[in-house]
Amino acid sequence: MTSLLKVEGLKKAFGGVVALRDARFELDAGTVHALCGGNGAGKSTFLSILMGIYRRDAGKIWRNGREVEFNSPAEALASGIAIIEQELSPIPQMTVAENIFLGREPAGRFGGVNFRKMNAAAQAILDDLGFAIPATRRMYSLSVAQMQLVEIAKALSHDAEVIFMDEPTSAIGHREAHQLFSVVRRLRERGRGIVYVSHRLSEIFDVADRYTVLRDGAYVGSGSLAEVDRASLIRMIVGREISEEYAKINTPTEEEGLSVVGLTSPGKIDDISFTVRKGEIFGIYGLMGSGRTEIFDCLFGLDRPSKGEVKLFGERLSVATPAAAIAHGIALVTEDRKLSGLYLNDSIRRNLSMATMRDLSPHFVVNAAREAKASCEAIERFQIRVGRDVDPVASLSGGNQQKVVLGKWFLTNPRVLLLDEPTRGVDVGAKREISRIVGDFAAAGGTVAMISSEVDELLGIADRIMVMRDGRSVETLDRTQATAEKLVHLSV
Amino acid sequence: MLDNPSIAKSQQATASATLKGIAREYGIYLAFVILVVALSFANKYFLTQSNISNVLLQTSINGVLAFGMTFVIITGGIDLSVGSVLALAGIVSASFATNSPQATVAGGPYPVFVALTAGVLVGVASGAIIGPIVARFNVPAFVATLGMLSAARGLTLIYAGGRPVPALTPQYRWIGNGNVFGVPAPVVIFAAIFLVSWFVLARTRFGRYVYAVGGNARAAKTSGINVVRVRIAVYVISGGFAGVAGMLLAARTGSALTQAGIGYELDAIAAVVIGGISLSGGVGRMTGALIGALIIGVMNNGLDLMGIESYYQQVLKGMLIVGAVMLDQRRNLGG
């Protein structure tokens, strides 16, 4: 039987930087194939070549046994390859149906669009997939998760035989993810080939049949997921032995660090109470929209709670602005580093110094020497892999960008660390380093509250885990009682 | 470390990226030098001292407006009101320094520093009105300053009763026509404002905040920066500079006109854009605005010298603005 898609010896370099040196891949009909690799392993370049966005430098691609070359995304699509991209690109003012049929609207009379036919066709696709989304809704009125589902419907509406999914669950909650997995399984039954790209190993083991690992742009290995365990897969991805995925180094003290009583912000969070001790990592788990981020907004002066009391080391605290929060020794690593963490077109050094400008340069004029020194220290301490610290921060990989955000906040000498999804979209190696940084901070007596959607991460490093649902805290579990099933069960 | 081939390669890549960076950074300066060399060959009068002084004089007003505009544009805003604010500040300031009994403020003419203070205050006040509208009430800068463009022009006409303010005192006129060691006074002011603006933008904490707000306002806010205050400040600076430009113009012509500065905002924006300062904010340097203003001034002057009609100058300026940004975009894509 010929495979749906076969790739051999794929090479691609950008200027002097080699992104792919020898990528190999083979996809059979009716399988879900996980494409694994750390950040910078060459996955995105690989996808971009197969989608006809980049031209390859060398290598061969076969589609159903015929050698092919794609010069544009349209050609790839025409040969039955569709992609669901990580970054969504909907047109918010248009309806779901208009988005699905963008660029190939069914023709109506006088050269117009046959809206009735289009809406019916779009609804048929959505219903077939089991997505409860009306085709005539405007895109902007949907949740991020629903938009992701529409994006999936759009890719499938091309009747593609090969479907790439690039981190499809990075922006959606647990329930939507399960809906997505059931769609993936149905597609597999229909004989499609699905290439599933994700950093989340538990998802890969959950949904995929086979795997291929890329590292540093080259093929490392492939095989059946039934014949490989988690540890050996991680070993292939990072290229070295990792004894434990998450290292637990801190032990909580009895001293009270951050305490919150009855925190309420109408429509967002309702009556939230918890206490984080010094030296403790306090995990917060919940779906997107469950009010997790909103707690941090209230604590950091980005939102004003209508009720509630916040105490820091036993003293009552009132924080109206982020500047006041920083002055009290609170640091907030926000959920989306591109949206609210970094100035992408500015240098690494300037990004690192942004929250400490006042300390580094107490006078009106910037103290360039002190700024450079602080930047060097942060880079060394967190082992941020940079060429020069005056290069743009956008030139770094996701994991290193995240370490820049952490470095920025550690320069403020925080006493309390609020982390909102600190390891989203970073590879296994960087994830481990970040959890080590956080663990060290807690072990040195720091107070940490950490939001995460990744159950494994919370179970790995948190001392206690509070579960959020619909703006309320449902239950707080000790690390000895917490299991993945319990967390998920409580959150939905 | 160097024996690792991939690191050596990436260092090579960094080196070539640096070369690209230099080309990107200094391309506009190169263009300026080429323009000057070409014009000096085309016309022997071009590089004479009196013509250079003339070019700088012609550039000074647009330059001062462009420096203020640079602060605003780097925060991601825009200031369309500068032409009208220039006229209002010019008229108000002149009314404190005129010998004409019909146009003067009661008790005038006042000493020149009173007139100058009045002019700067008018500009600052207009910025202090626009700033909060943009920063606190989230009205798009384009709309808020478009409103001020109309309102300030109207206030100019109301204040002066539709008539110009003539017969300015000799001390006031000196600002526009005097010399400091052979350098025209407006050029000295232009240079001083450039140096201060450059220093503030490149070397001070406030300058960093300006970039941060334009680069990513949400990140700036979470980093503890008072985004609202920074955004108000840039409109105040731009307004203040427009006030200075208004007085320079009035002092040079010897009387303040109600129709002064119409369309000047577009020349200031053109200078900023030619200087490689991105309209989407967060990127650019004060030297870019300086070169942009000089390129426009040199081009107008050179075409004048060659006897080319001003109609053609407008067409060429339009092509220059679009061309400069097109080159920028290509470089960004290639880099």
Task: Give a verbal description of the structure.
The complex is a heterodimer of chains A (492) and B (335). Chain A is of the alpha/beta class. Chain A folds into two domains: 5-238, Rossmann fold; 256-491, 3-Layer(aba) Sandwich (Rossmann fold), CATH 3.40.50.300. Chain A is 34% helix and 25% strand. Chain A is built from 18 helices and 20 strands. In chain A, the strands form four sheets. A six-stranded mixed β-sheet of chain A has the order 6-7-8-3-9-10, sandwiched between helices. The relative contact order of chain A is 0.11. In chain B, a hairpin with a 2-residue loop joins strand 1 and strand 2. Chain B has helices spanning 5-42, 49-74, 82-95, 112-135, 141-160, 170-177, 185-203, 205-215, 217-222, 227-253, 264-274, 286-305, 310-334; strands spanning 179-180, 183-184. A two-stranded antiparallel sheet of chain B has the order 1-2. In chain B, helix 1 packs parallel to helix 12 (286-305) and helix 8 (205-215) crosses helix 10. Chain B has a single domain (28-327), classed as ABC transporter involved in vitamin B12 uptake, BtuC (Orthogonal Bundle), CATH 1.10.3470. The longest helix of chain B has 38 residues, at 5-42. Chain B is 74% helix and 1% strand. Chain B has 335 residues and is mainly α. Chain B is globular. The model of chain B is unreliable at 1-11 (pLDDT under 50). Chain A binds chain B through residues 15-18, 216, 300, 302, 321-323, 325-327, 332, 334, 339-346, 350, 354-355, 357-358, 361, 364-366, 387-388, 391, 408, and chain B through 6, 9-14, 16-17, 203-209, 211-212, 215-216, 218-226, 282-283.
